[in-house]
Amino acid sequence: MSNNQMIINYVPGDECRVAIVEDGKLEELHAERFASASRVGNIYVGKVTNVEASIQAAFIDFGVGENGFLHYSDLHPRYFPGEDVEETTERVGHKTPRRERPPIQHCLKRGQEITVQVLKEGVGTKGPTLTSYLSIPGRYLVMMPQMDKVGVSRKVEDEEQRAKMRQILDQLDLPEGFGFILRTAGMDRTKLELKRDLAYLQRLWKDMERRRDSGSKPRLLYSESDLLVRALRDLLTGETNEVVIDHEVALDRASRFMKIVSPRSTTKLLHFPGKTPIFHAFGIEPQIALIHAREVPLPSGGRLVIDQTEALVAIDVNSGKSRESRDAEENAYRTNLEAVDEICRQLRLRDLGGIVVNDLIDMRSLAKRREIETRFKERLKRDKARTTTANISPFGILEMTRQRMRGSHESVHFVDCPTCRGRGLVQRPDSVASDALRELAAVLDIDRVTKVEIAVAPRVAGELLSSRRQLLGRIERSSGKHVDVRVSESVPVDRVSFYAYDAAGADIDLTSVQHHKKPKDLKPWQTHDGSEWADEIPAAAEQEADEAHEPGEPTHPIEMDLPDVPVEEGDDRPVLAQDDDSHDRNGRKRRRRRGGRGRGRGGEGDQPRDQRDSRPDQRGGGRGRDGQARDG
User: Fold this and answer.
1) Which structural domain range is residue 470 located in?
2) Which of 290, 274, 291, 294 is nearest to 282 (CA)?
3) What would the pLDDT profile of 217-259 be if each residue is shown by its tens digit?
4) Count of domains in the chain?
């Protein structure tokens, strides 16, 4: 029997972390900082700030400083014009079909009040995603206002079990005008436990109504529970053997909550009194360190490479040193099996969402591909988030989507590198030096500028003052202005800072100066001997160039003097491959091809078709090297 534990690390005023551990192996990790708690699940009464008919969406001010995005597919029928709420609550958990929906501009107006719930946190510059289909989760039930139907969790696939759960719901005295879903945690629960959870949800709804009718708008109506309560409500299952908490305050809150929703489970609550950090004591902290690693090892020697981008998550499966069998197909199959288990685990651990592209090792066997797909879908059943998967493509790609509820652990605990801006690449110092010289020439072209200082990293300064010293001096002399290169340890290696001054020594704001002039008076280039720019080349540099070419060394092609070549008549005519006077590599005169292959393109191709000879039996005929016809 496996040992399933929920380990809770609670630090008041800072952070709460919840780990789901199975036989010592970390399966799920949830973390929440109190200063930046998630808004997912919160319910607000807001105001419509803008309705965009072009994208059939509205932007809602719900009092958090940034507007939320409400798509028309998430608009409840009670906001449809002329609709009766009782007639629009026919199907629980289903949205009104698109063909039955009026345009959003006919449903919402600017300044209109609307009750919304946060579905997803904003990502990047995008605001939070909202819905007007409200749902309030309990321990065993989910209550949905204005949805007058009941149902069973989609996680329960067995039809016999679903029918049994529906019978349980029918025995409850459910209020009218509300929809309810029986969660998987409600299976095999007594009627008393379900009634207790129902009373808890009804009390929450009455409190929401009271807050909505009083106070200013927009405002918060319902705040989703913090991570401690959510973990006990959503993650605690019948298979969990114990819940270990390291802080007395958190343990007291957990005990009071469990007495309300599930008194039988209070016996699972345990206190960890040790001075050693609880995650270190249970061996969880070293496993957490691997969550942020790009590569994840597999048991047989292979590895996963996980890259998170703006558009999708890419997971590459590499066989590495996996050589359990001499059969390449069998090795690929075994590695893919291990990869499927680890991918599903990493998705939960890292809380990755959106589009996920898994690049598996190629397998020729269609049967083994189907086994991998079945294994993948079976492992995903443990995931609380909604997932959809596709079949393995001919290129070995398995695509899937996973519900994105909150930001991934990477986005919560990391920020983009200020040097590479999150790209993982830094420009080479020599390339930065070349860019700096180009920008310097543009800055020196500003009329008011008389002096420029360049602040660069030490490695870039070394490039400017060594291999590019002559080019820097040439730019300075041609402009007649002074240039200083300043070394700064605080400047990143791929950045260059310019400071410009006028004749009086005052700073010039380069951001407000247009220093890109449109070229004028363009003239064609006239070849000359180079005497016009001889003054720009230092004598020392010219002497160094002469000394660099020792006798016998090859000269650069551009420095060579072209020899005089006698010009004969016809030399300016292009030489074609089929000229009669061309010769092969042995000096023999080339034979000119006459005609081509195929019907109607024989040796007599220059003659009309009706004038050609018809010699059906001369299969061996042809032409010799001298061009004369010969018999077969």
Assistant:
1) 415-545
2) 274
3) 888 999 888 889 999 988 888 889 999 999 999 999 999 988 8
4) 4
